[in-house]
Amino acid sequence: MEKLFTLYTYLFLCISYVLAQQSDPVLKPNLKYGKPTKEELSLITYAPDTTATAVCLLHQGKTYFTYNDFFKLHTEQVIRVKILKSQGTSYADVAIPYYSPTDTHKEADRIEKLDGASYNMENGKIVKTALTSDLISDERVDPNIKVLKFSLPAVKAGTVIEYRYMTTTSYIEIPNWFMQQEIPVVYNQYEVTIPLVYIFNIESRGSDLIKTDKKQTTMRASNYGPGGAGSADVFSVNCDQLTFTSENLPAIKQKEDYCWCPEDYKVQISFDMQGTNFPGQEYRPISKKWSDIEKRLMNIEYEPFGQLMAMTNPFREEAKRDFSSDMTTNQKIITAFKVLRKNLAWDGTYRLYGINPSKVLKEKRGSNADLNFVLISILKDFGFSAYPVVMSHRSAGILPINYPSIQKLNTFVVAVYDQDNKKYIYLDSSMEIPTLNVLPLELTVSQAYILGSPEAEEKKWVDLTKISNSAVFVTIEAAIEGTEIKGKRKSSFTGHQALEFQRRKLHKKESADSQENDKSVFSNTKIQNISDDLAQLEELTDFTIKTGTSGDRLYVNPMIFTHVDKNPFFQTERVLPVEFPYPYSFVVSSTLTIPEGYTVEELPQSQLIKNDNNDLQCRYMIEKAENQIRLNYLFSMKSYLFPVDKYKQIQDIWTKMIDKNKATIVLKKI
């Protein structure tokens, strides 16, 4: 629901943008392929968005069916882009993924009729440079997907590039059509002709920005009968033809901080097949369920997944040496992880499918999927029930619960069932440190599905953003001695905050006992686990910090160690919603003893800073009691996603928090 609210807010802003353009007409592209105009080639900047490095002048799509004994689905596309700045030349490098389980698979998709060219204006004339075969390549990226790549030639600032192609598939799944891109779109039109034997639920995201026309038509179909011999039985099939048109859409910014997948917010049209209604037959609903995908993936004969779930632990002897029956559940899981990572390294990629285990073992590295299959085999040897939890990682967008599709999946993590506490523990082989229930941020998604577990269907869906509580609790006891603050600090870290703390320690080259900078010295530092879960840590340290001085006054920050000192929300306007890595809290309780001979001349004011939903707030409470200053500071972020219309509030909250983090006490010598 929160994601939907954020989406609607963003679409409202898009509509406002489009309405603003109606009083300022922009370029009208030529809709004929291969005929960019001199006006298009002469374009230097795009008035509605002068920061744009390129602009999509034209994107046309046409999806239709053919029938020769069975249906096939064809989609033709034409794309024309004007390169405005040198940074925009990257749009001449094109990658088109398509389904291809094997190179000879009869049901593989095909990409046909590829054609393209670059157009430049030279001496007042349009010069065309055609795409040649040596600039085209085909690359397999996983067992089911290949990518057709090509680079259009002679591209520079000022060039117009144009290309077209057709995708043919036997799978009757119409993919989402995106009206919006990461660059502005002048004209986007999509036509789809659907035989009435197929019933689709069609939804548009940003319908106010899309003009829709509908009419009835027919398609020609042929039946050749068994073996394809003899004359064809030719007949017509009634169809609905829908045309969707959008003009002058703003860019979806791809590089705004605090947004994982801008594609989630694009204006688009989705097609979800509900059933079939063939002549002479009753209506048949399509029973597409996630359990069907589960059966396919977990099938023992399915080589890149189900078969790997049954692999034997390749490190059995080593695991036995490290395993002890008196270990706790957490200790056993962490031991299994350490056995894995001692032998295999993560190659930096996230995958859904595994490759041949012998290759992984030989090279001693692999994707998180390769390593997770091995981890599951080790955990099973330790007596655990371990399951893959499939997902779409955060940068690839949210996984749709109501639209089951194996193509939407791109990786998985591991769920281990804790028999003692009757709950699941989650981890992933890509992690440097085996913090339980604290996954890499890329894998901390709100919708993921457990495969193979005995749970009821509805309980197989898990929200991985809520499996851990991320917090920092800091207690400080300090006193001012001369021009220095000396004291003790105890910091407790849980969840993602514990993981980040450990990462900082791993990647810093510091002496074990003393850390120094120009204003502070830390000593007697001890780090210990609160429990056998590495996602709960405690740090104890002594510190000495210099105060600010001026004449007979001391300037002291009662926070001593600040929570925030920079405002990342410096943009005047925000295009996309604000998506933080995870919810968390930060609590400081500080007692500072004032030296004799000084009095408090100025004390910061207490303040409550919050947004209108109270899911983002900061309490700064300070008081003087006899010769002590007591500070209680609480920052709480209960949600990780905030709609774009709340951006000004977030910006204001951060500004005020920084002011409080920098606020000082002024002590005057008596």
UniProtKB/TrEMBL annotation:
<feature type="domain" description="DUF3857">
    <location>
        <begin position="80"/>
        <end position="204"/>
    </location>
</feature>
<protein>
    <recommendedName>
        <fullName>DUF3857 domain-containing protein</fullName>
    </recommendedName>
</protein>
<dbReference type="Pfam" id="PF12969">
    <property type="entry name" value="DUF3857"/>
</dbReference>
<dbReference type="InterPro" id="IPR024618">
    <property type="entry name" value="DUF3857"/>
</dbReference>
